[in-house]
């Protein structure tokens, strides 16, 4: 990425367009079925293409007055962009767990369900991303929105960002994203989180847009099924390829950022990969291949060797009690 001479402002992305999915466009997946560690190629392709369609279909914001536009103008770089994973890269912890807390607070599911989510979150923070666990928690969370409207989930996403997510953004990663924007490049999030929530996070951070998991919907109501698969692993690669083709990006001029070895295919897709807060496997791979590494965590050694059982139990109780307290406050309000 070229050095930045002058700061600029990038337009904020709008929420994802209300896309009614025609099941004939690609395979759909029932989240109640146990997901494979890596989805079949046709599911990954369908998920990636659906995410790219949703991102490019999102309405762009209106223009400011000409004088302000001229003052803030940055020479755009039409061929370079940046792609950021979200969980443990842009924000601490799993975004789907933060969303699950918000859904629980609004009576989408039970205390037993949130206990399961909390345990998965502790495991995620202690040992890093696990594909099978992420598939299970993502699919379970998405199944709870069946029968609810797209607008409802988008509204919950807005509230959850304010209540929980905003304080968990890594300042260092956000600064990296801003450097790309200041250089006239477009910046997208790439995450297994629902596309509606990915777009909320992207817009709140002033980014171009978000690529996320696309759920099947009919007349604006979720069916409880996915288009293709979760946007994870191979599906992320398909999404970025499809978006690059639609947006005219040269992937050799693009950058990508992630914390997980599961995203090595995504990082390998671009000319400028960077490991952020990497797990052990990604750190080793990045060093061996001369990739940049940035670590914004504290207590990195403790994170690598694992968290003691007492700390895990304390974190689990804290997560559940926090959700319960938030629920009580919500009911009193």
Detailed description of the structure:
It is a single chain. With 333 residues, the protein is α/β, with parallel strands linked by helices. The protein is built from 13 helices and nine strands. It has helices at 41-57, 66-72, 95-105, 111-127, 131-143, 150-163, 171-182, 195-204, 234-247, 264-269, 280-288, 300-305, 309-332, and strands at residues 28-29, 81-84, 186-194, 209-213, 215-218, 221-227, 255-258, 272-276, 292-294. The chain has a six-stranded parallel sheet, sandwiched between helices. Helix 1 (41-57) crosses helix 9 (234-247) and helix 3 runs parallel beside helix 13. The longest helix has 24 residues, at 309-332. Residues 1-37, 60-64 and 300-332 have low confidence and may be disordered.
Short overview:
The chain has helices at 41-57, 66-72, 95-105, 111-127, 131-143, 150-163, 171-182, 195-204, 234-247, 264-269, 280-288, 300-305, 309-332; strands at residues 28-29, 81-84, 186-194, 209-213, 215-218, 221-227, 255-258, 272-276, 292-294. It has 333 residues and is of the alpha/beta class. A hairpin with a 2-residue loop joins β5 (215-218) and β6.
List low-confidence stretches. Answer: 1-37, 60-64, 300-332
Total helical elements: 13
Kindly state the percentage of residues in helix.
40-55%
Would you tell me the overall average pLDDT? 75
First CA to last CA: what distance? 48 Å
| Beta-strand residue fraction | 5-15%
Number of strands: 9
Largest beta sheet, briefly?
6 strands, parallel
From the alpha-carbon coordinates, what is the Rg to the nearest angstrom? 19 Å
Strand order of the largest sheet: 4-3-2-7-8-9
* 3D shape: globular
Order of helices and strands: EHHEHHHHHEHEEEHEHEHEHH
Supply the helix-strand structural class.
Answer: alpha/beta
């Amino acid at each position: 990425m070229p050095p930045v001479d002058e700061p600029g402002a990038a337009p904020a992305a709008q929420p994802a367009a209300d896309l009614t999915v025609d099941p004939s466009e690609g395979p759909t997946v029932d989240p109640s079925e146990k997901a494979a560690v890596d989805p079949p190629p046709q599911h990954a392709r369908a998920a990636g293409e659906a995410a790219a369609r949703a991102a490019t279909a999102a309405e762009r914001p209106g223009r400011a007055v000409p004088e302000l536009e001229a003052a803030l103008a940055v020479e755009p770089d039409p061929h370079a962009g940046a792609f950021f994973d979200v969980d443990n890269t842009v924000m601490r912890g799993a975004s789907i767990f933060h969303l699950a807390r918000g859904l629980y607070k609004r009576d989408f599911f039970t205390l037993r369900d949130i206990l399961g989510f909390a345990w998965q979150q502790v495991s995620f923070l202690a040992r890093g991303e696990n594909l099978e666990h992420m598939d299970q928690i993502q699919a379970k969370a998405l199944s709870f929105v069946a029968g609810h409207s797209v607008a409802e989930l988008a509204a919950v996403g807005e509230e959850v960002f304010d209540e929980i997510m905003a304080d968990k953004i890594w300042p260092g990663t956000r600064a990296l994203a801003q450097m790309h924007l200041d250089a006239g490049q477009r910046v997208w999030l790439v995450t297994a989180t629902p596309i509606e929530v990915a777009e909320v996070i992207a817009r709140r951070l002033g980014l171009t847009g978000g690529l996320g998991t696309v759920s099947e919907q009919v007349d604006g109501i979720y069916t409880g099924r996915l288009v293709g698969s979760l946007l994870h692993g191979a599906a992320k690669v398909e999404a970025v390829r499809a978006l690059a083709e639609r947006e005219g990006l040269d992937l050799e001029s693009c950058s990508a950022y992630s914390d997980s070895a599961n995203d090595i295919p995504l990082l390998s897709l671009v000319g400028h990969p960077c490991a952020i807060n990497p797990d052990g496997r990604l750190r080793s791979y990045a060093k061996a291949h001369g990739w940049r590494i940035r670590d914004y965590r504290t207590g990195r050694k403790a994170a690598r060797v694992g968290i003691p059982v007492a700390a895990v139990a304390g974190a689990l109780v804290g997560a559940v009690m926090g959700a319960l307290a938030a629920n009580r406050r919500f009911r009193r309000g």
